[in-house]
Amino acid sequence: MINEASIRLTAFFGIFAAVALWESLSPQRQLATSKASRWFSNISITMLGTAIVRGLFPVLAVTFAANETSSGILNQVSLPYFFKVFIGVLVFDLIIYFQHVMFHAVPVFWRLHMMHHADLDVDVTTGLRFHPIEVALSMGIKLAAVVIIGPPVLAVILFEILLNGTSMFNHGNIRLNPHVDELLRLIVVTPDMHRVHHSVIIRETNSNFGFNFPWWDRLFGTYRAQPAAGHEEMAIGLSQFRDEKRLTLLRLLALPFIGKPGEYPLSQRGREPIAKSKR
């Protein structure tokens, strides 16, 4: 698995650098908060989450898939190898879509996930900023998915690279030509599409749950094309966490236990936005 780890790390740092450079050259929005402070917190949270997952799970999804060659649906059917890879990636992405919906729908999971949404700006580091407990739960779901699906190892590697890469891309503060964005979002979640999900408005927060592929949101009725206030004027984050000085690294890690969940869980759908929000 050394080659797999090298491929993933190379892809990760390459995509991170590309999106970060793109943001600096062609930003979609002016940042409202300190970039240095946010990057320190977001990257620290990412490193902590990675370390905890490595400590808790002696076997990660790729290694698990390599050893689970007899169980799982795809191991029980005769299909061309690359078709199995395609199905594996597609089903994994659907599972992550439902996982994302679950973390918005179930109040106890929302408490973990709201740390991701409490970011007052959205950029490449936001795509890595998930509470370590949420990251650990996500890995457990992936391992269960490997047992049920029985995907080829290549499918798991491709999915992990896609998930990390598209998360950094679609959280990027990058400006795309509207026509290019319209075409791209037919096959991938774009920054403008996902940014709606980070709106402070509840109806917009509870939409556009996809990470890799945009089709699930359209299929299950959670797609929202644009924010009511427009991308430059929309308010990012959660209404109950607006003070940048109170969103330090330690407070963010404690947020699920001491922070107010607000009215954001999916059961609280909120009213349709009808007017521009103020930043």
What does this entry look like structurally?
This protein is an all-alpha fold and 279 residues long. The protein has one domain. 56% of the residues lie in helices and 0% in strands. The chain is built from 12 helices and no strands. The protein is globular, with a radius of gyration of 18 Å. Mean pLDDT is 89; it is low at 270-279.
Number of helices: 12
Total strand segments: 0
Portion of residues in beta strands equals under 5%
Largest sheet: none
Mean pLDDT: 89
| Estimated helix fraction | 55-70%
Q: Which consecutive residue ranges, at least 5 long each, have pLDDT under 50?
A: 270-279
The secondary-structure class comes to: mainly alpha
N to C succession of SSEs: HHHHHHHHHHHH
How many structural units, i.e. domains? 1
Shape: globular
Overall radius of gyration = 18 Å
Distance between the first and last residues' Cα: 46 Å
